[in-house]
Amino acid sequence: MAKRKNNGGAVDGAGSVLSTVAGPAAPPHPTRLGPPNPIAGQLLEKVTGDETLAAEMPFNSTKPLEYGEAAYTPHKGETHTPPTPIATASTCTETVASEKVGDGQPDIGDNAINRPLDRVRVDDTGRELTTNQGVPVADNQNSLKAGLRGPTLMEDFILREKLTHFDHERIPERAVHARGSAAHGYFESYEDLRAITRAAPFAAAGKRTPVFVRFSTVAGERGSADTVRDVRGFAVKFYTDDGNWDLVGNNIPVFFIQDAMKFPDLVHAVKPEPHHAMPQASSAHDTFWDFASLSPEIAHMLMWQTSDRAIPRSYRMMQGFGVHTFRLVNDKGASLFCKFHWTPMAGTHSLVWDEAVRIAGADPDYHRRDLWEAIDSGQFPEWELGLQLFTEEQAAQFPFDILDPTKIVPEELVPVRPVGKMVLDRNPDNFFAETEQAAFCAAQVVPGIDFTNDPLLQGRLHSYIDTQITRLGGPNFHEIPINTPVAQIHNNQREGFHRQQINRGRVNYEPNSLAGGCPFQAGARGFVSVPEPSQGNEVRGKPELFADHYSQARLFWVSQSAVEQRHIIDAFRFELTRVQTPAVRSRVLALLLNIDERLAGAVADGLGMVLPPPLPLSSDNPPHDYQPSPALSLFARPGALGVRTRRVAWMVGQGAEGGQVRKLYAALLDAGAVPRLISARIGPLATSDDAPLDVEISFETGPSVLWDGVIVADSPVFVGDAQALEFLRLQYQHDKPILALGNGAELLKAAKIPRKPDPGVIVAESADAEAALASFKEMLARHRVYARERA
Ligand code: HDE
After folding, report:
1. 653 and 619 assigned to the same domain
2. Ligand 1 atom closest to Cα of 248?
3. Which keywords does this Swiss-Prot/TrEMBL entry list (predicted)?
């Protein structure tokens, strides 16, 4: 409390203290404001406190630091501690307590809105139903009517509130990346990286930073299928001590275009065609390939997009990339260029195309379900964060421009340095409130991380906030609980739709003296941009090196295994067969010729077309000849998950060996796999012993494509079952491991599974079941038996 001189109960200027306008020329010093009351006492204290604060800043002492040389060193704002907390309050009544306004002891300098999400979790257990105003609802079955058969009354505010809320339940979906799924988790730094960056998550070995991660497809609408051929979004929101850092990346390290100016054209071309709104979630149509073949900078991206990277087995089994070159900056202001890589501990694994198409029908939520189930069963997905760090001098020697987002930095040129791991260990409570309302933004970085002049990134810095203003209904979307940082928010931004914060005090501007200068600018502790010199004539164009469109596309192609190359050829054939305009197809072939003749020839063959001349190059510079990069093959990262989370269908028929099934089932479960008994119908199934088996899922509900492998139990009577045969044929066709025990081999025969050496088709007598299961597990852990495809 401020000490005031006792001037004998003076009332001079008391009227001014009690008024909100005008006052005496000199500070008023009354010591009482009429009959004593506690609030008036605080009012006196506040007015005196205000005067003290204002007097402490006779002028703006930091103004000269905004100019010239001094401006290069950010300065801390001038600040003074209020002589009494009430000096900076909005009202002297802030100590009046109630159940609504709080305990009357405001937490000065603390914003409750940043507290953990528990502050907004709602639980209805044991509660009555109420309206949105908290009024208990007596009857939730009937609207209010004039008599049982009478008209509904306008007066029914309960019905009207319920319908009005329902009418407005939808918000616009994301313009791209509409379909997605997310989870909470943490990032843990392996080491203290402060020599390289002052970014808070890397400040100490073992330091954990909470994250929220959303995976997505790009082109499809919110209800589209998960397994379509597409790039996957990989957006990570780090809730750091210094505010939110969003690393909004993809599962493919390059992009379609080089300049933000082309993004709306790209997205218009790939989205459903505007006249009939088809096709959904697919690039296999004329407008996409028309645009693509007229934009040869897309060549490298097309190679990734037609590869199996675009049909991942699981969100848990794909890499993530920051795509652009960023900068990491330490506390001395020294910076390095940086590319971000997420590597899944589960390895990189994909579906095969026919499987992906069928899953889209069998379980459109395939990836969403997979992520949810893995986390809810305690099999937390993990990724390692790796950095490619390089200097300006190194970058100048590269045969490509590091500002070009259609280029990678090959790992052979700059190795990836592992610096931490990310673990997703908690599913959201509510999809809409968290996943749908999460607002990622490429411009959200924290001290220690900075942008480069990549012209695609520069455009993104604008676009994300802008899109949220429409999608989330105004400028206060950062106050939606999932988006609030764990760091405190203090600034002078105010008002706008759906404002949540109730800012204390009358000061909403800076500089100020009446709030002791608060919130004051952080100076060097705050975000400081790397002082990169920037000079040049204004121009709309790109650097010459950006014109090499094919060297890295070829690098990708030559780095793929034979199976991967064949899948790429098949994907081009599929996409272009769906295209209806031969001239567009021909232009794509002309583009492919600049990547590889065999690739172009094989695609042309599938289309029954002759090869046109290659597209003219965009530059006279000779292409760069890269050595193959083994790291670019999906097979370079088998992962360390073994059979954990792998789904195994266990086909059982009447009279199966119940005891053996139970024993092996338990063994597989103990290894972390997810086996389920499958048959024509669910429920009890008679076995060779007394205890019936309980079938868990039927062939209709769990078709072949939803399983990573199949075991056919030793059962006498399922031979000839059409569903079982179809199931097995598809398991084989999709390169999945098959184990048949005892009489189960008959089913393989009936399904015409080829009888030739195949490490993924294991046939064993019941007596050898345990050894056979071990071989099966080994094949299951390897994901697919791609060798089968060469046959
Ligand atoms: Fe995005 N992008 N993008 N993008 N992007 C959006 O923001 C945009 C780009 C990426 O899970 C939108 O909130 C422009 C590259 C992901 O919520 C939008 C340009 C990369 C997500 C937008 C790009 C991405 C988005 C749509 C070129 C990989 C989903 C809704 C200049 C590095 C985030 C939204 C989530 C979402 C604009 C290019 C990744 C419209 C203008 C390159 C993962 O603002």
Report:
1. no
2. 43
3. Heme, Hydrogen peroxide, Iron, Metal-binding, Oxidoreductase, Peroxidase
